[in-house]
Amino acid sequence: MTINRREALALLAGASALPAGFAFAQTAQSDATPLKDLAQRRGLRFGNAIANAPNRFGDAAYRKLMARECGVIVCENETKWQALHPAADKFNFKPADEMFAWAKKEGMQIRGHTLFWYPEKWLPKYVLETKYAGAKDAEKVLSSHIVPVLKHYGRDIYSWDVVNECIDPATGAFRDSPFTKHMGGVESVDYAFRLAKEHAPHAQLVYNDYMRGDAGSAKHRAGVLKLLADLKKKGTPIDALGLQSHIGSWDDVKDGKDARREWKSFLDDVTGMGYKLLITEFDVNDRELPGDIAKRDAGVAALTKDYLDLTLSYPQVTDFILWGMADHVSWLKDWYEAPRKDGLMIRGTPYDEKLRPKPMRDAIVASLKAMPARA
């Protein structure tokens, strides 16, 4: 038996026990059909982000699980600017190319993440230290990275996160960067998308960000909507908004119905502009759920199903990508904002550290089966 969002939120609020009559038994998965097949039946791509590391891509068992469940591969870090192009005169395509060669053999499609990660802290040092005389110099730096990367991958990558996280979540305004300063915020994003369209005309072009439905994310949502509206006015060749979807115990997650209503309103506004949607980085932070594994897994499953039932109800969603399939390889394990106060490992993915399916996987299955078919 599973629990619903109300019960999960009661746990998040600090309830010491589940509602009366609740029972949970950790049993085998209810449907072992590969998730990629369930998604494909409804016209949705399903995949996972993986890193070229010994306990991720280097782990044969984890690769086997991913090949079974996923039709799409994304690099966690290997196709980001600082990894691909760490110095002005140096590119490093080898780690990503190794993963993509394997993915092709397994029949997977490839998503690119990301051509231009906007915050200064994620830009290579040489980008920050360049002496910019004006917009042309900034354009030259962007072009010197984006164009060679797109030429290298050609038609292999069907979808690119062209720009990632250019909106400051605290203010809703553009983040500081050399490109904001010398080109203007909207202008720098527009330029990146036009480069992408010119050199990868086949690809789906995506703006990716981590806004949510809670009250603490209101300025972030507003800033992203303004960005999308401004790009629409400029005729920027942007196809879709990527929803990072790191859900769970972040900020004002206990907003409940209000957050759900605000999230629906946000998605209505985005799709009303004609944009597609992607779930690009899905996982669940369980840091405020109880330590008890049965209760925690049930709460994670409930939050998963609630979010997916609403978001996947939009047929404009074309892709659903996990950001890690198993707990021991999840970025949440090491991210400074994520750890649980009790020191327990976060259980925010559909498989545990021994690659056994968890209730979260059943929740994903249920949502995939319930969502409307895509064209």
Main sheet: which strands, in order across? 1-2-3-4-5-6-8-9
* CATH topology type: TIM Barrel
> How many distinct domains?
1
State Rg.
Answer: 20 Å
> Quick one: overall form?
globular
Assigned CATH superfamily: Glycosidases
Poorly predicted residue ranges:
14-28
- End-to-end distance: 33 Å
Please write the CATH class name: Alpha Beta
> How does the helix and strand content classify structurally?
alpha/beta
* Number of E-type strands: 9
Biggest sheet character: 8 strands, parallel, barrel
Examine the secondary-structure arrangement and name the CATH architecture.
Alpha-Beta Barrel
The proportion of strand residues reads 5-15%
* Order of helical and strand elements: HHEHEHHEHHEHHEHEEHEHEH
Q: Quick check: average pLDDT?
A: 92
Per DSSP, the total helix count is 13
Description:
The protein has 375 residues and is of the alpha/beta class. The protein has one domain: TIM Barrel, CATH 3.20.20.80. Helix content is 40%, strand content 15%. The chain has an 8-stranded parallel β-barrel, surrounded by 5 helices. The chain is globular, with a radius of gyration of 20 Å. Residues 14-28 have low confidence and may be disordered.
Brief rundown of the structure:
This protein is α/β, with parallel strands linked by helices and 375 residues long.
